[in-house]
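Q: Could you fold this chain for me?
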Amino acid sequence: MALIKSISGIRGTIGGKPGETLSPLDVVKFTAAYGTWLLQTGPENRKIVVGRDGRISGELVQRLVVSTLNALGLDVIDVGLSTTPTVEMAVVFEKAAGGIILTASHNPKEWNALKLLNSKGEFISAEDGAKVLDIAANDSYEFVSVDKLGSYRTDDTTLDKHIDAIINYPLVDVTAIKKRKFKIVIDAINSTGAIAVPALLRALGVKDIVVLNEEVNGKFAHNPEPLPQHLTGLCNEVNKQQADLGIAVDPDVDRLCFVCEDGTLFGEEYTLVAVADYVLQHKKGNTVSNMSSTRALKDITLKNGGEYFPSAVGEVNVVNKMKQVNAVIGGEGNGGIIVPDLHYGRDALIGIALFLTQLAQTKKSVKQLRGTYPDYFISKNKIELNKGIDITRIFDHIQKKYKNNPINTDDGLKIEFENDWVHLRTSNTEPIIRIYAESSFETTADNIAKRIMHDIKESI
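A: Sure. Below is the predicted structure, expressed as C-alpha cells.
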C-alpha cells in the first residue's frame, strides 16, 4: 500500500486506509486542492480537461474527480479513455485552465494517479505542486452552493485532433510511410494504446497491423513497464508475423520502444537517439535528456552540429531545460520523446510517426538503422526501500567512498568513471532507489551497478 505526493502528481495504490493509499477520500482531497489552486491562479477560466488510461480503477477515480471539480464550480470536459499526450494537447485545444490525467503510467494495475497540468498542457512546476500539496494538507478549499455547480460534457474528438496535428507536422512524411507498406505488431498492454496507436498508424497509411493485448480492460497481460524482460511476447510475434517492426508503449502512451524485424530489441534508450538524429538532420539545434539517459544522444547531437545539455530526471525538469537552451528535440532515455513545436510533453505517437518517416525515407530496416548508432549499454536496477530508511545517510556514504571521482549532485548522485558513469537517485513515483550505469560493455555496466548496490546495502 502506498501514497506518493510529488511533482509528478499524486500516485498511490487502490484500496486501504485514507492517507496511506489513493483512497476515494484522497482522490477528492487532492483534486479539490488542485482545483482550488487553479481558481486562485485564474478564476476567470473554469474549464478543466479530464482523461484516463485503461486502468481497472480508472472509471471510479474519474467519477470522483469530475464530481469534485464540479463541486468547486469548475466546468469539466471529459475526454474519456485517452493518452497522456492527447490530454496535454486537449488542454491547449480547449484553451482550458488545466487538466488532470488519471494514469499511473508504467506502474502495475493496483496503482493509479492524478497527473496535474497547467494551462499550457504541461505538468505543473515543483513550486506550483508545493502549493497544491499545501492546500491539501490544510484542507484550504471550499465547495460552491448548488446554483454555482460546474458543468460537464464529454468530447470524443481529441485523439483525432492529436493525430491530425501529427500527420500535418512538417517532418512527418505520410506519403513515404504509406509507400513503404510496413507490417507492424503493437503491444498495447490492455490500455489506451490499443485505441491510439492503430488509429495513428491507419492515418499514416499503414494497413497491415497486428495488435497484442488489445482489450482495454486494465488487466495488464504482463508488467506494463516496456522493459526487455516484459516484451518477449512482442519480440516473438514480430518474428512469427515476419513483420517490419514491433511497437511497445506504456499504459498512458508517453513511453515508446521498438523491436527490430528479427525480433531483437532496438533499445528504449535509442528511441530518442534515433528520432533526434532524424530531427537534427532537418532542423539544426540543441538537445536535452535527463542525466540517466545514454550518452549516445550527445554523440548524435555533436555529429549534427548541435549542443547537448543534461537535465535532472523528470519530465518537468527536461522541459524546463529544453526551454532554457531552445532545444529542438529532447526527452528521456526511458523512451520518452518531446517535440517542442508540437507540444512540451513526452509523446509516443509523434515518436512513432517520426521514426517511421526516417525508416521510409532512408529505406533502411530497423536493424540497419540501429547499426548506425554507437553501442552503449545501460544497466537499469532498483532497490526497494523500507519506511524510515535514511536516504541522506546512504548518499553521504556513497559520496565519501567515491570522493576522488567527479560527482554531480544536481539530482541524486552521478559518479563519473574514466569512460563510464553511474547515477543513483530516489524515485518520484515509487519507494525505491534507482541505480543506472552505462558503459561501452554490458558486463562492465552491470558490474558497476552491482558494486554500487552492494555499497548501498552496506550503508543501510
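A (continued): The first helix runs from residue 24 to 41.
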